[in-house]
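hey can u check if this looks right to u? its 539 residues, i copy pasted from the old doc so theres a chance i mangled smth
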Amino acid sequence: MRIDRGVVILENAPNKMRVATTTSRPWQVPSLVFGLVLLWKIALLVFTVQPVPGNDAFFYDGPVVNYLLHGKYVNPALAMTLPISGSEVFSAYPPLYQAALFVWMRLFGTSAVSAMVFHVVLFGLYSVVVIAILNRLCVPAWCNHMASLFMLVLTFHDRPDSLAHVLGMLGVLGLVRYRTAAVPKQRSNRPGSLWFMAACAILCTCTSLQIGAVYLCVIWLATLAAWLFRHCRPALAPITTMLVTPCVLVCVVALFFPKLWAGFVEHARVTPSMMGLHMPSLIDLLKICRTVPGVLVAGLLLVWLWYTRRIPKGAELGETWLITFASVVTGLMIAVVCMFFWSANMVLMGAYLQPLAVACVLAALTTVLTKDTLRRMVFPVFGAAALLGAIRAIGMSTWGVACAVDMDYSRALDIVRTELAELPRQGPVVLSSAYLYEAAKYRDLNCVHSDWVGKFVRGKQNQELGWLLELKPPKLILTQFDYYRRYESVLSRLKNSGVEVEVIVVNTAKVRAPDSYCLWRRVIQHISWAPVIVELSWR
């Protein structure tokens, strides 16, 4: 045993196992920058109520809000497009996230702020699990610090993804605990970590099918790499269980709960995420590079190490290398799929793998590269990648603060309440997701989600105008993002369509949000609470 920079190294243990010890130097605390990022998120929420819930937020939260307020597990705001999930039973998505949100909102209310705090708590849990994985792998503190900067990419917290990534990372933690057992022979006698891994992977799939598949891929790749390169026989029972169980659950729902299955298929048929085979646009490529820059750089480094034959072999290939391989390859697969098959927005799934992938690849590089090479070449590249990924975080901390000073959450909701009070009862009103938490309290209004105003036809362009002509809502209450991204052009076409309608637009923002600029709305979205009120007088 010897001590190296506050770390105990067990010379006789497999792969010279490192055991972290306490240190009096703050910068040597592995979780230092992780904690600072979490404090930044908390401060941003407390003082500016950011990030404003995005378009998907009320899609997933709506059924819980409606159940707690009105006693029925549906999301009426979706009824125009998804009649089953909007009117009979919400079944557009696996239910575990809604179950967790139900417990939270039962205690803390159904407001948008309550949902936002819930997601910050989940982000904190995710951070703790990632730190636990890195500590178990004995990743040096400076690697953790660099990796934690990529957590600034994670600025969207309004989907079941928040819970799914916590469960998925817990599954990876179970695998790492098993793989890093002090004595390899003890692993077969202590299978609890593997069954914990399998349980978390199954629960992850019950929260999000796509993200469940992501973590199944990470676990399977790590297990496969250990088998191929280190001749470690995989534990087939838990590995097979976590793969078979989700398939069985899907079959059970399809065969014995036809209404739930019909609601799921109803959503799957119209979801814009599955685009089929296509060539990526320049905007899509930029979005992918901005979202997973750390994964892309890590992938290039692994290719270079393989080409120069610097990757260890056999017993020298430690657990950190296995997790590096699994997380980086999975992240690259997500990026490729989002380029050619899915919407580029789905690449955010890979961003949650980024801190783990970056920390592990940096720790692995310390075993094959000199400190001088790391300092001159690797640090600047990852630093630039982290800065690229943090563009929205920087915008939220500057431009977003200015928007919050101009129009804070309370004043915005006062305006929304005033506008809702003036509407005729039972009349339709189109609202952005961020305002639907408040509008859901008005049982005598037909509140419609601004993204789900009518029947969606895959492949058909400019459907929103037809939706408005069919619904004829007297008022639209939109966020800056929704107005400028979609409805500004729709209203322009409506004015020129020959339909007799008077359109009055009142933008309550005095500080222009980035959504009002074509360039910035693709980079910094959902940072202003100021509503845009659109009054439509149909004749």
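The longest strand covers residues 501-507.
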